[in-house]
């Protein structure tokens, strides 16, 4: 368990660690998880080198099966340029030959995208063990537990509120995550990769005009042109709330590909988990609205 982005709270980290131990897992906590932030940057969980060292050390440890981000915030993207991705690629498999897993959401989008581009293999976009949403919701903990312990193939992801913005069916590899992080990565090596497949998007606490700008940046960069289908998650705290659906309709309703809204992943207090870099089918029909996973690595 590591904090590659913002600082965590000791009590919440302890609670999150205990839940994972109660699941029968042997938890190793990163050496710098509670390191004081740099004097200049109280929004970081320690200096970049320390946060990067915890990430790399965990990934390279042959006894570690999954690297669990305890929280998001800001800072994961600051770690990427000094990582030797060739070395990480050489340690991408567990002792049993299956893929090593990264889990986390929000700012951890930067790590999901980097691992997809440089290493490959599945990752899991899910609520994080050191956050209140995980600690306060037994339903979320149960959902994360199922993704960690049960096969992924054939699982369907949707919520009662899931809506069809544009009908149809699509197949492809699932990529994406937090909209602001995807837009902020434009121009990076990771943004130049192959993004063909199902694109997922969500965000939190943004004004509509900023969401508009992020979407426009991705559109101009061609990210939407590579999408076979699009799944939209939660827009928790984005304002004005009644402006979100019209904005999404403007960008996606007439693209000629299936689009789902309100799938439920992201910063929703009842968020569902979403596998990334795995093949899936998106179904957007009047009586059927879900994403079904074709395969996975957990």
From TrEMBL:
Keyword terms of this UniProt record: Carboxypeptidase, Hydrolase, Protease, Serine protease
Residue ranges constituting the LD-carboxypeptidase N-terminal domain according to the UniProt record: 2-123
InterPro entries, A to Z: Carboxypeptidase_A_C_sf, Class_I_gatase-like, LdcA_N, Peptidase_S66_N, Peptidase_S66C, S66_fam
Coiled-coil segments: none
Alphabetical list of Pfam families matching this protein: Peptidase_S66, Peptidase_S66C
Domain LD-carboxypeptidase C-terminal: start-end pairs: 171-282
Family: Belongs to the peptidase S66 family.
UniProt protein name: LD-carboxypeptidase
Record organism: Microbacterium flavum
